[in-house]
Amino acid sequence: SLKSALRSRGTKPAVAVELSPAPPAPGLEFMQGIMVVGASEKLRDSGASLVVCTDLDTLRGVADEQKSADSVREVVVAYEGDDLESASENGAAAAIVRNGEDAEACRRQGLAVVVAADDLAAGLELCASLDAPALVVPAVSEAPAERDCCVLVRASLDGVMDVARSAADHNFDGLLLKG
Questions:
Q1: Is 40 helix (H, G, I), strand (E, B) or coil?
Q2: 155: which residues sit within 8 A by CB, 6+ positions away?
Q3: Residues near 48 by beta carbon (within 8 Å), at least 6 away in sequence
Q4: pLDDT (tens digit, 9 = 90+) per residue, 131-154?
């Protein structure tokens, strides 16, 4: 499950990665799928708990690679975008949403709900009302120790070390890395 994948890291913060590969150079379009599969393998081998895809082609490649992998590590594949029906059809296990209406659409498609919110308190409240297993927030702030959802903080690659160092101090479960 998503919650167990994000909380199974012990004292280390869980790592989630947004995978949005840049378009290939002209003439190398055939390489896109190969690059996605390679990135998916590398993320699993490196210990990622969650891979978030923002386009359906990448989602399909990552989901297919994760399903075919001979690995005991669970890597949850999530989608962040508007086409939840296609996300489900292309192998997503979860989707990132900002409101209850989208959460219901997720559930109709069989997807786990990950709430994204600009404010920690409002996000925790929405997670509780939706029984969502995870919350993504844009900045580090003090998360309550007692809560029912995992809290991930979005971090850019250039700021990841500062955010990671504050994980224990601010009581969040992991990072969502965005390149």
A1: helix
A2: 163, 164, 175, 176, 177, 178
A3: 15, 16, 17, 75
A4: 998 888 887 677 777 888 888 887
In the chain, pLDDT over 90 holds for what percent of residues? 33
How far apart, in whole angstroms, are the C-alpha atoms of residue 96 and residue 173? 17
Model confidence at 8: pLDDT above 60:
no
DSSP string, 69-87: ---SS--EEEE-SS-HHHH
- The residues pairing with 79 across neighbouring beta strands, listed in sequence order, are 53, 95
CA–CA dist 84, 158 (Å, integer): 31
How many other CB atoms are found less than 10 A from the CB of residue 161?
10
**14-32 b/e (C-beta count within 10 Å ≥ 16 → b):** bbbbbbebeeeeeeeeeeb
Provide the residue type at 73 as one letter: R
The Cα–Cα gap between 77 and 25 comes to: 26
Which residue is associated with the tokens 């990072």?
Answer: 175
Unique residue bearing structure tokens 């081998």: 45
Name the pTM for this structure. Answer: 0.83
